[in-house]
Amino acid sequence: MPQTSPAPAVAPPPGRCPRGPDSRIARFASPATRMLLAGDGLTTVLLQAVLRVPLGIRTDSIEQARASVLGDTEAVSALRVPGRRPCWSRHSRLLTPDGATVSFNRVVAPTARDPRVDAAMADPEQPLGFALNGAGLTTVRQLHGVGRVRWPAGTGRLCAFKTYTLHGPGGVLAFVHERYSPDWFSAAVDAPAG
């Protein structure tokens, strides 16, 4: 039997080295929720794999406004944009084939930083990650926050959320805030040890 040499080890990109479980994520009781919050690839692909259905998109709004009037200081700070800089603000949701909302998404991106990002932000027909990949833009995600907030569909239940920035050529391209339906991804946390 011929022997083959082992494949060379490939180091992860800078800033993507595993550092052990993030304590903010580890406190969620549901393994599916932890996997979703820890994922650093295309969220839509991960959601489709977990739910085993194709997801559609409904874009609720796409607009441009100066950073100072967006009302999202976390996004503006993460993107490092001055208050007068025009930014995209895109609200969308991912839906099951029967119309149930799986996630609410808000993306903020400076205009005119990369024409591929501008085209993706203005496209109401595709999830942002799909549009960016289709344009040949490779991005890296940097997690900013995870936690629990009220699910915006009016039920009053808590849902899991995460925020992250998308980095590409030239630096930070967009700030993303995703909230996940508690119907599929429980926001329950383990009781604190003590």
Automatic annotation (TrEMBL):
Record region (Disordered): 1-21
Record-linked InterPro entries: Chorismate_lyase_/UTRA_dom_sf
The protein, known as: DUF98 domain-containing protein
Species name: Embleya hyalina
